Amino acid sequence: MNTERQKQLAQTFRRMHEAPPILLLPNAWDAMSARAFEAEGFNAIATTSGGVAWALGYPDGEKAPWREVVSATERVARTVRVPVTADIEGGYSDSLDQLADNVEDIIRAGAVGINLEDGRSDHDHPIRRLEDAVDRIRAARDRANTLGVPVVINARVDVYQKHIGEETSRFEETLRRARAYLAAGADCVFPIGLSDLNVIANLVTALKAPINVVGRNGMPPIATLEKIGVARVSTASGPALAVLAFVQKIGRALRRDGTFDVLAPQTPRADTQKLFAARPD
Questions:
Q1: pLDDT tens across 265-276, in order?
Q2: SS3 103
Q3: CA atoms within 13 Å, Cβ hemisphere of 264
Q4: Where are the beta strands (DSSP E) in 118-231?
Q5: Which residues fall within 8 angstroms of residue 271, CB to CB, at 6 or more apart?
Q6: What is the value of pTM for the model shown?
Q7: pLDDT tens digits, residue range 32-73?
Q8: For the chain, what percentages of helix, strand and coil (3-state, to nearest 5) are there?
Q9: What domains can you pick out in the chain, each with its CATH number?
């Protein structure tokens, strides 16, 4: 991708976080899902680590080979015209230098935003020390600055997701970490696992910075989230899992009934060809 075009996409994506209006980000897992979301009018696309990993044939949780994740991201970015932000989980490395190199890889693949989480898969140490997590945000920002692409860093705070500490202490710990990440170069805070609207609203008020929440089945509508000050809503692995459920339904119906009615309705083949015929500039 042309560096100047990528820089413009990054700046455009950054402005989308100046709510209102709220930024609604669908999470794609391959080129087809990304192009389909773009065709429905979305102004930016996110990837989902789970969806990408599953589409590549691996479990979620940094189990997919990094080079395959980068290639999948590149296919998404070259298939759409809108900004793409990539979920790189914990950065695929404990080393700051390797983390920075991985951030460079994903930027060179065409991404103009990243998710970077502070959670870990280690059951004994499920979340990074604050100082370590801050250093990783700073390393990501420094490498992006070196490349001249002002990527949007969405700093995921896993305090609620990982049930860190006592429930009564989680808000203050999330706030402490969020402030440190913003100071280190993050642009948006993602308190994954937090769904209480009152607590979310309090976090928005305290931080005065963009907050990302996950839109899941049962969540209040976009208008309600926008009203309490949420700047960004992503769908995480929800769409990928919904599509998987439909594929499983097709498989069960074919095996059970021996008929093909379950394959309707379909997007016409000609329309699908047209969807992919127009290439991004």
A1: 999 999 999 999
A2: helix
A3: 3
A4: 152-156, 188-190, 212-214
A5: none
A6: 0.96
A7: 999 999 999 999 999 999 999 999 999 999 999 999 999 999
A8: 50, 10, 35
A9: 3-237 (3.20.20.60)
